Amino acid sequence: MVLFMALLVALHLITPSNSAPPMDSNPVIYDLENYDVDTDPWDLNNYAEGYDYDDVDEEIEVGTIAPPPLPTSEPPADIDVEEVPLALLPTEAPTPPTLDFTGPGLFGPDSGLGMPTCLLCVCISGSVYCDDAELDQIPPLPKDTTHFYARFNSIKQVQTKDFVHLNQLKRIDLTGNQISALEEDALRSLSQIQELILADNLLQTLPELPKTLKHLDVSNNQLKSATMHDEAFKDMSNLQFLYLSKNQLDYVPVPLPESLRVLHLQNNNIQTLHEDTFCYHDNIHYVRPALEDIRLDGNPLNINLFPRAYVCLPRLPVGNAK
């Protein structure tokens, strides 16, 4: 038994152990003096000697394959192709532009100038601004237009169709155009109109005006007394502001409505006044308190020669005193 145990101990000492690697008999110790010293340098001159390049005796060929030929678009020689001249091709006649007042679209009706009115002009809450837009005619307006401004353009006339279907229109301002004519019915359908401004144009006469007007400015035109309607302002019971300066009028357009507050007639050709121009000669108690601003300066008229013409007025007119 003792002998058997001795043999086991001897075998254990002879057999190498797998539990720990063998220790190097000459370990390299690194310190600050030999830290960057290569302990096993490589010989770069003999580095490539281990590979035999002569073993590569086969050449690699890179080949290409040509694509198949594309089909040609030329017709076969036995087929005749007939050329049709462009002049013989059928064409459609252009459709003339029409106005659609029932469906004006997002930007209003077509103006006939390549874009809707509300792109050519500016539309804000019922007001349409077409000032200085190089217009030579009034563009079609949206049905809900209440105020229309087209100042400083080249508009030459106002036609009946321009304001048709515009029952909400309250103000029209066409100052600084070249308007020489208003068709007789151009303004008749405007049941809500209150302000009409046509200053600085070429008008020689006026059509029948809506009785709803409160403000009328036709100053600096070519209006003549002989071409205006008789009693043109008599039935305009809402009229408060009437501007007729810088025209060719020969007399004050009577009778004037009782509602009138401002009357400007300066720079015309008025030469005389009558007792009934502003007052009633047969009623000495008649008073006209609303009419406070009358301008007659710039006329060949001496206002001192007609004192009885002003007895019913709260203020004397402005005019030449000699």
Overall description:
The chain has 322 residues and is mostly loops. Helix content is 5%, strand content 10%. It contains 2 helices and 11 strands; from the N terminus they run H-H-E-E-E-E-E-E-E-E-E-E-E. It has helices at residues 2-14, 117-120, and strands at residues 122-124, 127-129, 147-149, 157-158, 171-173, 181-182, 195-197, 215-217, 241-243, 262-264, 293-295. The strands form 2 sheets. The chain has a 9-stranded mixed sheet. Strands 4-6 form a two-stranded parallel ribbon. A hairpin with a 2-residue loop joins strand 1 (122-124) and strand 2. The chain starts with a helix and ends in a 27-residue tail after the last strand. Residues 97-108 have low confidence and may be disordered.
Overall shape: it is elongated
Largest sheet: 9 strands, mixed
Beta-strand share of residues: 5-15%
How many H/I helices?
A: 2
Distance between the termini: 167 Å
Poorly predicted ranges:
97-108
- What percent of residues adopt helix (DSSP H or I)? under 10%
Q: Structural class, from secondary structure content?
A: little secondary structure
Number of strands: 11
Order of helices and strands: HHEEEEEEEEEEE
Query: Order of strands side by side in the largest beta sheet?
Result: 1-2-3-5-7-8-9-10-11
Mean pLDDT: 80
Radius of gyration: 52 Å
